[in-house]
Amino acid sequence: MINVITGSLLFFIVGSVFFSALFIVYSMVENEKKAAIRMILVTVFLLILGAALIFVGAPFVFQITLLVFILVALSVVLFRFGNKSITFPVPKKQFDERDVMFSRAALKPDIKNFKDYYAMRPQNLQVDNAFRKLPGLLNANTKYYNRYIFSAANATFSAVNLLQPLTEQKTQESNDKSINADEATLFLKKWVEKLGVHSVGFTHLQSHHLYSHIGRGKKYGDAVELNHKFAIAFTVEMSHESLSYAPQGPVVMESSQQYLNAGTIAVQIAEFIRNLGFEARAHIDANYRVICPLVAQDAGLGTIGRMGLLMTPKLGARVRVAVVTTNMELVTTSPKEIDSSVVRFCEICKKCAVNCPSNAISFNSGKTKLGWQLWKISHEKCYTYWCKIGTDCGRCITVCPYSHPNNFIHNTIRWMIKRNPVNRWLALKLDNYFYGTKPALIPLKKWTG
Ligand code: SF4
Ligand code: SF4
Predict the structure, then answer these.
(1) CA distance 117 to 59
(2) pLDDT band of 9, cuts 50, 70, 90
(3) Which atom of ligand 2 is nearest to the CA of 394?
(4) Which atom belonging to ligand 2 lies closest to the Cα atom of 385?
(5) 400 lines ligand 2 (CB under 6 A)
(6) pLDDT at 8
(7) Is the C-beta atom of 366 inside 6 A of ligand 1?
């Protein structure tokens, strides 16, 4: 006859075995063999414990101690504490797009912009000349060159370029300039979800969202002038499978594809708004007037983490972001405060910094004497590495515990991370146990080789 204590223990063991079995199935689907094997070991241990309780029995003191331990552990998992709010200071100075690595990489020594830029930033000349000597992104002489993959990525970037003229177009004449902001916002939200976005948010456009000067294209060097009042920020998902090969070729194939998907949706939104008689501009790859992660954070889509990217609640940084700015009235979704649990998890995690092949990511705390600051990576080190390997790397995104697929198992862990520091510590330990602190590179599939 099983008593109440033994019955309660068996209840928790059966629940844990059920969760473990789900984890194993999901891990197999996600091609995470190491995680599946390790969870099989945990499950076998739980089954042995359950069988021992039923068939052999255990001293009452042991059983009651184990039950108390389980109940205390469960209470800790459920309680919400240690999430004091965090604010990032609003940047006082606008960022100049001419300082972005892609803008600097496009400068050629025989053009005026080259001389003007390095007269303005002489400290960047040496590091920039160093990456200019390397083969470069999507170049044949790079470490991860693959004829088919690089050709596919180039083709996709060419398709993104075809969208560029559509980012800024004439607004349609309209006699009816009235708009119901609730209706328009709801329509946009539902429509773009149908188009395949992962998340969408709306915010007031603020001066620190804007670049000070244009760094790419024909208007290079012009001051950014954009008097739109609202911004629509959205994310599209990058494939977990493609990212798992990072820093090899599939990552650049995937990022180019998602730049294209995000760009297509952004120009659709901008054209939709212009058809209603309001100004709108799409901000897409290679043609930004705004800093997308800052806009997206203020629109409530996530929090900027250690690797300097927007961390969304369900996919982490495994997204691409695009923005549409407009003067059509919208209902904003800006959060009262940012999700401090992301910043606090990044404080202890550092997995992206450990795995970054170019040491571009800081191990430092986000908290300085001045308060919490946005982490900044060394774009020079990162981009120089890209020029050696030919892809846009993405190793930091791949190893990040937030980047796991959006499913029941990983969302349970994400939910735990939000609750308290003990869960965050535990989640990090579990991530390292199941997926490794430095996961090995995955060989490419045959069709990509
Ligand atoms: S890997 Fe860790 S430290 Fe880096 S962004 Fe992700 S959660 Fe933060
Ligand atoms: S993309 Fe690669 S090199 Fe750049 S920060 Fe991430 S891990 Fe480091």
Answers:
(1) 77
(2) confident
(3) 1
(4) 3
(5) no
(6) 87
(7) no
Domain boundaries, the chain: 4-78, 83-449
- Give how far the C-alpha of residue 354 lies from the chain's centroid of Cα atoms, to the nearest Å: 17
| Ligand nearest, relative to CA of residue 348 | 1
Neighbours of 78 (CB within 10 A): 11
Peptide bond into 250 cis (omega under 30): no
**CA-nearest residue, atom 3 of ligand 2:** 382
Q: What confidence tens digit (pLDDT) does each residue in 49-72 have?
A: 888 877 777 788 888 888 899 899
pLDDT tens for 79-108 read: 999 999 999 999 889 999 999 999 999 999
Nearest CA to ligand 2 atom 2: 393
b/e sequence 131-159, b meaning 16+ C-beta within 10 Å: beebebbbeeebebbbeebbebbeebbee
Q: Are 222 and 305 in contact (CB under 8 A)?
A: no
Query: Can you give the pLDDT at residue 1?
Result: 53
Residue 179 Cα to ligand 2 middle (Å): 44
Of 302, 321, 309, the residue nearest 258 (C-alpha): 321
What residue type is assigned to position 94 of the chain? Q
Ligand 1 near 397 CB (within 6 A): no
DSSP three-state, residue 200:
strand
**At residue 329, what are phi and psi to the nearest 5 degrees?**
-60, 135
Kind and range of the H or E run holding 186:
helix 181-195
Question: Helices 125-132 and 379-389 meet at what angle, rounded to 10?
Answer: 10
How much of the chain, in percent, has pLDDT values that exceed 70? 99
Q: Identify which of 57, 59, 66, 47 has the alpha carbon closest to the alpha carbon of residue 8.
A: 66
pLDDT of 449 strictly over 50: no
Question: What proportion of the chain, given as a percentage, has pLDDT over 90?
Answer: 85
What are the residues whose beta carbons fall under 8 Å from the beta carbon of 43, sequence distance 6 or more? 17, 20, 21, 24
Distance of alpha carbon 306 from the chain centroid: 11
Residues in the chain, overall count: 449
